[in-house]
Amino acid sequence: MAKPIIITGASSGIGYELAKVCAAKGHDLVLIARREDRLLGLKDSLQAAHGVQVLTYRGDLTDANTRYQFFDWTQFKGITPYGLINNAGFGALAPFAETDWDQQNAMLQLNIVALTHLTRLYLPSMIAQGQGRILNMASIAAFLPGSYMAVYYASKAYVLSFTDALATELEGTGVTATTLCPGPTESEFQDKAAMQNVAMFDAKNLPTSGDVAIYGYQAMEKGQRIAVHGTKNKMLTLVTRLLPRKKLAEISRDTQKPA
Ligand SMILES: NC(=O)c1ccc[n+]([C@@H]2O[C@H](COP(=O)([O-])OP(=O)(O)OC[C@H]3O[C@@H](n4cnc5c(N)ncnc54)[C@H](OP(=O)(O)O)[C@@H]3O)[C@@H](O)[C@H]2O)c1
Fold this sequence. Notes:
Bound molecules: NADP nicotinamide-adenine-dinucleotide phosphate
Mean pLDDT: 96
Distance between the termini: 49 Å
CATH superfamily: NAD(P)-binding Rossmann-like Domain
Order of helices and strands: EHEHEHEHEHEHHEHH
Strand order of the largest sheet: 3-2-1-4-5-6-7
Oligomer: single chain
């Protein structure tokens, strides 16, 4: 495969658009998500449009066995990825005391454990080949405590801290690690997170998943450490450095309190 890139969560939203951007740049792709019909449709259109090779894998990444099986399958196919894009993730809006534990646990497994595990599995071969790109999906949520989405925001803070540390460890290896931090973006995220009535998603002209994907791909290729999408979001992350964390938690409480 030509400079293959693995993309998790490629069946919708930002991951789907990242697959389109990577294929347009000539990368062969390995796509994983649970909705295989979506992946197969994307595979057909990308192969037809760009002449790249696309492999798909149906799997639930919250499950450690699935991750090992996916890794073994890519080994069997002889794939050493040039890129690993850990994009799959989800959130849920609710007071923490009322959350469904199985859902919160799945969020931790997907947003944190799967991202870390896949990075651990693929990184040695990327270092050995002396080149590679890791793009880990965080959010501007990584920069502040998020009342009523406490676990989601904390999971993204983990992604930022983990990836930033990794970026320094990787200096001089030819492999880079980038944290992508979008703000609210058009995708299926809002509906799945029960955030239909949250003001930040009401804003006109929300960036599309395609906008974020183009920006994320460019940041990954440049080996940028932290990539915050959009001027407003960049300013917001600067403000989070100035305000006390209690104030930040109150702001998130007031802006995303469930109805
Ligand atoms: N949209 C936003 O406002 C926003 C802002 C900042 C950061 N983000 C982050 O961007 C990433 C992509 O989200 P999105 O906005 O594109 O939302 P999305 O449209 O809901 O896409 C989420 C993707 O993750 C996959 N996924 C979910 N659970 C999975 C599981 N257990 N195993 C494997 N794949 C799974 C989904 O595929 P299947 O359901 O087919 O498995 C889907 O392809 C997430 O990490 C999210 O936290 C989003």
